[in-house]
Amino acid sequence: MKVLIIGGVAAGTKVAAKLKREDPAAEVRIITKSEDISYAGCGLPYYVGDVIHERGQLIVNSPEKFARLTGASVETGVEAVALDRAAKKVKAVVCKSGEEREYAYDKLVIATGASPIVPPVPGTDLENVFCMRTPEDAVRLRAAVESGEVKRAVVAGAGFIGLEVAENLHTRGVKTTVFDMAPQVLTPLDPEMAEYVENHLDDLGISVFTSTRLEAIEGEGKVERVATNRKKPFKADAVVLALGIRANTAFLDGSGIELMPNKTIKVDKKLCTNDPDIFALGDCAMVTNRVTGNAAWSPMGSSANIEGRMLAQNLGGGQKGTQNPSGGEARTYPGALGTGVCKLPGLNCGRTGLGEAAAREAGFEPVSVITVVDDKAHYYPGASSFIVKMIADRASRKLLGLQCLGAGAVDKMVDIAVTAISLNAELSQLEYLDFAYAPPFSTAIHPFAHTVNILLNKLEGNLDSFTPVEYQEGMAEGYIILDNGLAPAIEGAEFVDYTALKDELPGHDREEKLLLVCTKGKRAYLTQNRLRAMGYQNTKVLEGGTYFNGTDFDEE
């Protein structure tokens, strides 16, 4: 079997390596436009920040080393330019010489990835305009920073890559501004979680502007200013374009391969295109969402490797119990969850599954809770807090999504949720899991289990609360704010220590609407519980407390 793979970063090299293990007799060839293969694209911001010191650390394998290790052949600097499905051939051009070549195949794997979006605005060709997609992009930006010529930088785009670049520029002493056309940063996050991130970055000196559109990059030969739809331009010595990516599928024009509206390749659950001998995966392919089954784009290195392994098993005949796609049942890709994690200065962000709005659009009745829980034993050095938003379906109580912010290992919270969502777990099945515990790692009641318990309390009516969004939308109008923290923290609010409550709340009748607010939510919940026992039934707890919502409250 002759297998031709177009593209040699994550998806293409994974298919090649695994396929040669599955079927050593297969003739596997990779052609790729880049001179590098198998490089760590997600590590590029950290090379800019000198967290990763040497360029060579970004290169997982050289073409020669990969060929020796796997038995696949690799040709770099070769760009696919056309596909002839009838002849089962790919036309390509050698980038340096312009020489034309043809490659025949029995099975074709398209893993051409994606390229950064460069908007059609003036000035993108000026000196010190950078993208962040290849090792050379990172090398150029780091060299400019280390030369001392970049004192101020503007990052256009506030997704994972944009904010990671901003963090690394900031840590190197570059005054950094980030803007995005969207109304929030990190659009996969729900708006209130994104707002917390924006405020955190602003507190650290990284200016963030949302609903801001790039209109021009200005300067005499090199970057001096960035014009947007705001009245005043941003002064800058460098601009990093992190506005998103576009699938590299132009070479398929006229081939009859079916594309999605965003120009990604439409594939089925076996990653097969509308041609039974052509497959696509990675950043250039459109897969599905694991929860909803709807189309979903997952341009992540993690997704690319999962897809690559599965496709190679199918192409190679698979392991025990799995047959070749042309000969019977094959493995199917269950879909992506949109899982992601991002390191920012002093705050890590992770998420998976459906956000609240997406869950509602998918036909669920989402119920969410925001908690502030310890990430490890509070007395252990370095202990901090997680801000967790957990979302479940009201009827089935299945976990739908989780978002987590904190200085600690937010990925462990996200990964537990990935497992639970993938197994269609209900909250009751997660309530008593035996999580690892020791003070340096976690709390006796694991922060994930703690959040599950609080969401169950809310679903069962034991916790009656306003989410931060509900509070911002004015649902607490008419409520009297009571400060239930360890010590008074809310200016103008009455302080109530729940441990001092006996038979009544002096000065308040039992029909009054009371909004209970403490630092993180726990004492407010305990106050609500005690007040209910006294007959006060119109109480609400503000989820996240002052830790998440701040201390500036207006009496409604």
For the structure shown, list the relevant keywords.
single chain, 556 residues, alpha/beta, FAD/NAD(P)-binding domain, Enolase-like, domain 1, 4 domains, five-stranded parallel beta sheet, 14 helices, 33 strands, 26% strand
Provide structural commentary.
This protein has 556 residues and is an alpha/beta fold. The protein has four domains: 175 residues, FAD/NAD(P)-binding domain (3-Layer(bba) Sandwich); 115 residues, FAD/NAD(P)-binding domain, CATH 3.50.50; 112 residues, Enolase-like, domain 1 (2-Layer Sandwich), CATH 3.30.390; 85 residues, Oxidized Rhodanese, domain 1, CATH 3.40.250. 24% of the residues lie in helices and 26% in strands. It contains 14 helices and 33 strands. Strands 5-2-1-9-21 form a five-stranded parallel β-sheet. Helix 1 packs parallel to helix 7. It starts with a strand and ends in a 7-residue tail after the last helix. The relative contact order is 0.09. About 2% of the residues have low confidence.
- The coarse overall form would be globular
CATH topology of the largest domain: FAD/NAD(P)-binding domain
Strand-pairing-aware structural class: alpha/beta
Enumerate how many helices there are, as a single number.
14
Reading side by side through the largest sheet, how are the strands ordered? 5-2-1-9-21
Oligomer: single chain
Share of β-strand residues: 25-35%
Largest sheet: 5 strands, parallel
